[in-house]
């Protein structure tokens, strides 16, 4: 990896970290700007660099640096919302294909929405796992979806669309670092 790519990865890790600190607590899963920052990272850096940024973000948070919406540290593993953070890595990789120069906007949206679906799946499944095995509160998948996904779908589709539009504008203005 080139030095300039490492700098871009570090910059986007910082943006994701700042996005996590802008939050609205609504139940066990707060509304944050992490997801749009992950999508923006992917749509600018491409699959490899954005997955690297998401991985670095995850590792920094697990070392105890409070970059997650709920803080940081190894204890984050038992947070019911930690699955969303785990989902950021494959989501960034998938959305990163939307950074390919010259692809039509509808494909950028397809990659963006696919990434959101990945984040939702990881988040809901991890929520069920933690609630049932660690916390000891039995939760089914339907109940988990009603708590962790359904209230956020419309917001995330809107934010995902706006993020994709913003990324396309930035790329047209010369900000495209993707190394696919």
Automatic annotation (TrEMBL):
<dbReference type="Pfam" id="PF02632">
    <property type="entry name" value="BioY"/>
</dbReference>
<keyword id="KW-0813">Transport</keyword>
<dbReference type="InterPro" id="IPR003784">
    <property type="entry name" value="BioY"/>
</dbReference>
<keyword id="KW-0812">Transmembrane</keyword>
<keyword id="KW-1133">Transmembrane helix</keyword>
<feature type="transmembrane region" description="Helical">
    <location>
        <begin position="141"/>
        <end position="170"/>
    </location>
</feature>
<feature type="transmembrane region" description="Helical">
    <location>
        <begin position="108"/>
        <end position="129"/>
    </location>
</feature>
<keyword id="KW-0472">Membrane</keyword>
<feature type="transmembrane region" description="Helical">
    <location>
        <begin position="38"/>
        <end position="60"/>
    </location>
</feature>
<feature type="transmembrane region" description="Helical">
    <location>
        <begin position="72"/>
        <end position="96"/>
    </location>
</feature>
<protein>
    <recommendedName>
        <fullName>Biotin transporter</fullName>
    </recommendedName>
</protein>
<keyword id="KW-1003">Cell membrane</keyword>
<comment type="similarity">
    <text>Belongs to the BioY family.</text>
</comment>
<feature type="transmembrane region" description="Helical">
    <location>
        <begin position="6"/>
        <end position="26"/>
    </location>
</feature>
């Amino acid at each position: 990896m080139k030095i300039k790519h490492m700098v871009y990865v570090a910059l986007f890790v910082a943006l994701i970290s700042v996005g996590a600190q802008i939050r609205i607590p609504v139940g066990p899963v707060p509304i944050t700007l992490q997801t749009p920052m992950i999508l923006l990272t992917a749509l600018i850096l491409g699959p490899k660099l954005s997955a690297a940024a998401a991985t670095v973000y995850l590792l920094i948070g697990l070392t105890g640096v409070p970059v997650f919406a709920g803080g940081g540290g190894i204890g984050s593993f038992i947070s019911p919302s930690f699955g969303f953070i785990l989902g950021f890595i494959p989501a960034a990789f998938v959305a990163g294909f939307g950074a390919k120069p010259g692809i039509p906007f509808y494909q950028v949206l397809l990659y963006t929405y696919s990434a959101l679906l990945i984040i939702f799946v990881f988040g809901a499944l991890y929520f069920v796992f933690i609630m049932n095995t660690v916390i000891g509160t039995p939760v089914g998948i339907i109940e988990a979806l009603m708590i962790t996904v359904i209230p956020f779908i419309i917001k995330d589709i809107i934010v995902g669309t706006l993020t994709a539009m913003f990324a396309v504008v930035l790329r047209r203005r010369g900000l495209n670092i993707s190394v696919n």
